[in-house]
Amino acid sequence: MEAQVVIGEDESGKPVRIDIEELLATRLLVQGNSGSGKSHLLRRLLEQSAGLVQQVIVDPEGDFVSLADHFDHVVIDGASHSVAEIETLAERTRKHRVSVVLALEGLDVEQQIRCAAHFLSALFDAPREHWFPALVVVDEAQMFAPAVSGEISEDTRRISLNAMTNLMCRGRKRGLAGIVATQRLAKLAKNVAAEASNFLMGRTFLDIDMIRAADLLGMERRQAEQIRDLERGRFLGLGPAISRRPIKVRIGSVTSGPRASSGGLLPLPSAPPEDMEALLHTQLAPAAKARIEAPPPPPAPSSDSAAEIAHRMEELGQPQPPAGPEAPEQPAEERTEAVQSILREMAADAGSAFRPTAALFQAFLTQCRKRHVSAGLDMSGFRRRFAMALAGLDRLPEREREAIAELGSELEDDVLAPFLLIARTMAERGEGPDEDELSRVYGTNSPGRIRRLLEHLEKKGVILVREDYGGGRTLSVPGLEHAQP
């Protein structure tokens, strides 16, 4: 099978190729100011190599979701999933070799960075038998691997930088070939940029970026001026997968395109000023009031992500249950006991924590309808009640159970179950759970993920971890003594 793709042509019109097998071993760095054609270059590379290798695209602006309209990519909407679901999707992405676009435009910047970090870490932590070759493209890489701290928290920067460093420094042995694109080399962490052996440098104007780009291309600093003179869509390429000497490339055309384009001028409306004023001010007060009083819209359904992967792999949960008759009114105690019984049965399934929350919630609603029980829980309430069931908290007396639940009241839903398990086992037998128990309720087989979970809980101040030199680990829960009778 031909492992080379044409990325464009040189100044004489000859095709310039990229060797995909070599790229998998040596990684790629793309740099160019906004408007230099950086996204167009990435799209050309992805389109040309779509049939050769699996592709994973981290897309903070939603620029690459249109690939799914022309190729076999699955779009994962980061805003529609929990941390555990994102990590599960990443694991299945590696296992089933699905090309995916992780679309993050529905999240704010810090959430984008955390979501991408969890996804990349799960790709990196995949079992050895799933180490298939894949191109991992990270657009706007300066966000995910910043050279210095910015407005995001230090914890977010740390986990993101760790994920990006693993991708670029250690990903090759796991089959992951990092392709990072940035507007500013000076803003990208040096240990991430330094691992790339192939470079495509587009137009840039700041001296610090030009000089650094020239150094990476092996050019003298007085030659750096030509980087400033590059036209849109033209790049200087160098590297074992491209050319042994710097070569100027004009990037070829693409099939897909961004969902919306802001390029080009449009004629302004020709209506009289008084009509335009009316358009702005008519019914302004009622519209403003409705905007304030209206509840926030629900998150968009993830039809392009979990549902599509479920359709392809038949592993992501159950179909939407048909609407049934309304459950008859029940005494509150009976309803509570029936709901708790359903949750206990679901939690008893050893693989339940490995399933997406949305699929579990649908299964829960189905069981409630079958038993003519009014669920009385929304998704958020279900997450926390199911976490308690997974942890076996109902084994404890009511007073002790409520006190332990209060200790975890400020925790995120996706880490509540392992904390409650730790607190429950400490209360019952004076020691924490073993790693297999934690893995079961957290929905992971990765020791690295368990370690990061415990670090997170310790930073939250809800547990204390003590490790001895022999590798043993002792857990304790501050405040647990007050929760026990």
In short:
The protein contains 20 helices and 13 strands. The strands form two sheets. The chain has an eleven-stranded mixed β-sheet. It has a two-stranded antiparallel ribbon with strand order 12-13. A hairpin with a 5-residue loop joins strand 12 (464-467) and strand 13 (473-476).
Describe this structure in words.
This is DUF87 domain-containing protein. Residues 256-268 have a biased composition (Low complexity). InterPro entries: ATPase_Atu1862_pred (IPR014588), HerA-like (IPR008571), HerA_central (IPR002789), P-loop_NTPase (IPR027417), WH_DNA-bd_sf (IPR036390). Residues 253-273, 316-338 are annotated as: Disordered. It comes from Croceibacterium soli. With 485 residues, this protein is of the alpha/beta class. The protein has three domains: 4-251, 3-Layer(aba) Sandwich (Rossmann fold); 317-376, no CATH class; 394-485, Winged helix-like DNA-binding domain superfamily/Winged helix DNA-binding domain (Arc Repressor Mutant, subunit A). It is 43% helix and 14% strand. It is built from 20 helices and 13 strands. It has helices at 20-26, 38-49, 83-96, 109-124, 141-144, 154-170, 190-193, 207-216, 225-228, 273-281, 284-293, 306-313, 332-348, 357-370, 379-390, 398-407, 413-429, 435-442, 447-459, 480-483; strands spanning 4-9, 15-19, 28-31, 54-59, 74-77, 100-103, 134-138, 176-182, 198-201, 234-239, 243-251, 464-467, 473-476. Strands 2-1-11-10-9-3-8-7-4-6-5 form an eleven-stranded mixed sheet. The chain has a two-stranded antiparallel ribbon with strand order 12-13. Helix 3 links the parallel strand 5 (74-77) and strand 6. The longest helix has 17 residues, at 154-170. It is globular and about 80 Å long.
